[in-house]
Design goal:
With 808 residues, the chain is an all-alpha fold. It has helices spanning 2-30, 40-65, 72-94, 96-115, 120-143, 146-174, 180-207, 213-232, 237-255, 268-289, 293-318, 320-339, 344-365, 412-437, 441-463, 468-486, 491-513, 518-551, 558-585, 590-614, 616-635, 638-666, 671-694, 701-729, 747-753, 759-807; strands spanning 261-265, 367-371. Helices cover 80% and strands 1% of the residues. A two-stranded antiparallel ribbon has the order 1-2.
Amino acid sequence: MVKLLATFILLLLIVNISISSVNNVLAQNSTSTKNPAISNEDLLLLNVNLNRIDTQLDILLNKINNNNNSLIFEHAYIPHSVIYPSTKPIAIAVDEELANNLEANLTEVGIQSRADPNSPIILADITDSKNIINDFYSKLKDTLPAQDFSILESQTMSYLLRDASNSYGLYLNTSKIADADVAKLAMIDYENTKGLINQSNTIFEILKPNMTDTKSKEIEYFITNLNTIIDSKSDNTPEFSRIVSAIENDLNESNNIRIPSTTSTVDPSLQTYYDNIEILLNNAISSIQNGNYLAADKNVSSAYLDNFEYLEAPIEEVNSTLMLQIETNMRENLRALIKNQTPLADIEAYISNIKEDLQVSKQLLSTPSTVQSNNNFTLPSSFVTNTANIDSLKQGFGVYTGERRSMGEASEDFKGQVRNDIDSIRLKLDEVISIYNQNDTSQALATARSAYLDSYENIEIPLRPIDPDFTLEMEIKFAELRNLISSNAPPDEIVSKIAELKSGLDESERFVSGIGVVAPAIAFSSSFSIIFREGLEAALILGAILTYLEASRNEKFKKHVYAGIVLAIALTAVTWFVAQFIIEISGVQRALIEAIAGIAAVAVLFWVSFWVLNKIETKKWIEFVKAKVWQATTTGSFMVFVLLSFFTVYREGFETVLFYQALFSFAKYMEIYVLAGLVLGLAVIIAVVFIIRKLGRKLPLRVLFGLTMAVGAFMSITFLGNAVREFQELGWISTTPIYNIVPRLDINVATMTGIHPTVETVVAQVILLAIYLVGSLYILFIQPRRQKKIASMRKSVSDNDKKVQKGG
């Protein structure tokens, strides 16, 4: 099993090398002028990737024609996200209109394959995509002389065969691992292998008329053998590779060309560290041979701390997975083996694996130099096979072969950069709406492209390892926005799509930033305060009812009180699920419903906060309850007790549902802290009831209600800020950024405080805060003084009356 996994990892490294090489080519192309002369190397790269896309489209067509929906999305994803991005700049340089149309079609194929693989739309999109690819082929053919085009096709066929060889090797390795997800990956690689061989054969049919009869029959024979190996699923990769090499030789001989050889050199400053690590690891082995494990540990520690640490950054740039693997193996695993004085043979084998990984990393960091042939059209040395492999494909969207990280597992620099990029994107998206409303479609499209290319692609760097599925969803949403603009969609559709993107930007920031410490603490305390406030008032009223029944010796009515409580709790639960169901089915209107719920929560919190502060409502309820209880006990009406307890509990339950719905909508990924606050709040309420009922203790209700009122005020200000922002996202309220005035908080802290750097949200919160302050000042200071003054005047009048009476 270890050997299989090692082989699988090595093959994945080949893919990563390929991607790095392609990126080097693209980086060179990105600096070209608007209408550059397309090099032979770029034409080859374009042709190879167009054939790779064609391969996947043919696989899809075959599946659709045979009513086989298995793995349709996986194969639809490969052209859009694995292949086309590596050749997009060259495609644009050849024909921008065709390139943009192809990208739009491939995106639509991916979306339709996920939504409804049986839709006739996907078949039309695949056909359109293949027609565009054929147009590209025609342009390539017209660009080159016949001989050079023949060479181009030959070299393309060679690379497709290498793709097939890599895919088949991956299939054989993964098919031996007993795991459902791995089995799925194996089948994808198997289907890729067959598709690539079929595509190679298609190219061969084009080349065949220009070949000698001997060569063409020989290649036909080889292709037949490859298909035989694939169909039989023979575990014979050496034979597969040998046949591929033989076909390549025949193709090169037919065109009188050869593939240039390459040598690689690493930067001398980095080579020094590689040499030092080699020496120190060898010294470690020598120390163990002499029985000195302590010296071996020092050598390994020096190899890591004094040398490998300087290689980490450059290796991480080309392959973060490999870097982490070497780091873990040297820093932890190897040192653990030495510390446990593992036998020398095992340690030597482990060091050998580390050396192999180091060699691979050195190859990734090496600069290739090419030994060119005499022919003017040769393979570029920087181009290595870019196999469309899917080694980490999970359910839904996503193809990611690199390191996987947890939410928030990004450097502080990345987190800060992501916040800055998100702010920039938000400004550009608002600009898109403004420009589009002025009917300037081309400028709106340019701004939308800039929002993605200049900013969101930077966010994808730390985001993709955390959630590649979500990263693709955002890519598609940006593409959908560009398509809507290009098709002159109604402005409300543009606003709606931008609202989706803005919501996705918040999600992107959450993934990269994590939840932190401050936001969960606020979520917990807010949740605790809600349930404590609502539960305490209900407990006081129910306690008054039960106490009166006990004092009046009417305990027989207690069961009816309990029945009302149970009914109220049950209806509260139903209310929660109904509210949740309405939000879930609201779809695109979910943000609007959450915003309205937030405003409703603000209104209720504002109302109950001042009632609590005055303690008027609770007193009135208790007086009302006492009167009703007395009346019921005298008439023997048990329904009064049921209804009293029911309405007492359900009134608080309804408010609780409203508050928690608003809280959950803003406390994303902090639900566990909200639930913890709820549970602890209920526990404290039970303890309070026990203290009051069993121990006869009095609680400082004024203090408790005052504290919950303060937290309620804070939450209402939070809900208001978030609700206004939701309306801004929906385009109902204008957005005026003030990033340089109001601090830009982490998204989680921002949603738990409602503080967002816009004029509209800040003004709304300041107004509400001012009302709270004025109201509190009146109730806590002005009103008591006034009442005291009135009481003093009444007393004075009363005293004067008494004096007058005495004098009379």
